[in-house]
Amino acid sequence: xxxxxxxxxxxxxxxxxxxxxxxxxxxxxxxxxxxxxxxxxxxxxxxxxxxxxxxxxxxxxxxxxxxxxxxxxxxxxxxxxxxxxxxxxxxxxxxxxxxxxxxxxxxxxxxxxxxxxxxxxxxxxxxxxxxxxxxxxxxxxxxxxxxxxxxxxxxxxxxxxxxxxxxxxxxxxx
Length: 174
Hints:
The protein is about 0% helix and about 50% strand.
């Protein structure tokens, strides 16, 4: 059994558990509404997949994902993450800006990732290999396509995303 612990701002950790290959997954993408949507996928009992959503992530928010082996006392509380969604709040990306995120992984330099103008991004994390989770980012518009393979997450490794408004800068984000 493996776990994905998710911290969202000051809430959590929210724990998802699965023994299945590809049983833990995350998909983050920017939406037409201006927010970033978070989809958490948990597969148990073969092909039965359950989705959990937070659709109001915006600049100033933080997500941290930690991958580990579950102990016999580990319990799942991933359903509670849906209660963290902001209610009745509006957000619009300011003109000339786009949403990006500063990526910090265990023992690694922080980098900034975003997407081409008038485009979008997808951040994905999944334990397809089972004993670790793979992280990647794809960003594109009608003219360009960018891809980044981020660090794999092994036992107790983590990756943190701090969401920002940016005009794009891939280095020097403090």
